[in-house]
Amino acid sequence: MSANEKLEECRMVEDGYLSEQFVKQLTGDFDIACVIHIQARNTGIENLGCVYMCQNLVSLDVSCNKINDLSPLYMLQNLQLLNLSNNKISLLKGLERLPSLRSLNISGNVIDSMESLRVLETVPNLRKLVIRDGKVSNPVCHLDSYPAKLKAFSSRTSYARL
After folding, report:
1. Which end of the chain offers a freer environment for a tag, N or C, measured as fewer CB atoms within 10 Å?
2. What digits encode the pLDDT tens for the residues 42-71?
């Protein structure tokens, strides 16, 4: 059974909570600590729940959900690719604890201040940053000071959609 078929089989998380059982169903792994990739796009996730238990996680796509709290990500020391696009995120607190993070998509959220983006200055290996993707952006992208303040990000990243 392919990953897409597994996603169809367990399409939505129960009560918006990313549970250990849902991750196991989605990935086919019996030990959540062994999970390396999670693709849970548009599955109704509101709370990242048990994701902190996936200590070997390298790639996480939870785009098109209803997530607003990133604190469960704090233990994911191996996480390199993170797609948080099209959620309800206003604060990026917690991402500074992800030393391996290289690629981040936060387009289509509700980030409305430059202060919220400052956390990203402390993510040491961030090389790809997507804050807006075509017409999908964040309220912060419409501030007058936005372009000038983001020059620091574009100089550190090899690819940026700011």
Report:
1. N
2. 999 999 999 999 999 999 999 999 999 999
Q: Which two tokens stand for residue 147?
A: 């372009």
pLDDT tens-place string over residues 109-138: 999 998 899 899 899 999 999 998 888 889
Q: Considering the entire predicted model, what is its pTM?
A: 0.89
- Written as one string, the DSSP assignment of the chain is --HHHHHHHT-S-GGGB--HHHHHHHH--SSGGG--EEE-TTS--SB-GGGGG-TT--EEE--SS-----GGGGG-TT--EEE--SS-----TTGGG-TT--EEE-TTS----HHHHGGGGG-TT--EEES-BTTB--GGGGSTTHHHHTHHHHHH-SEEE-
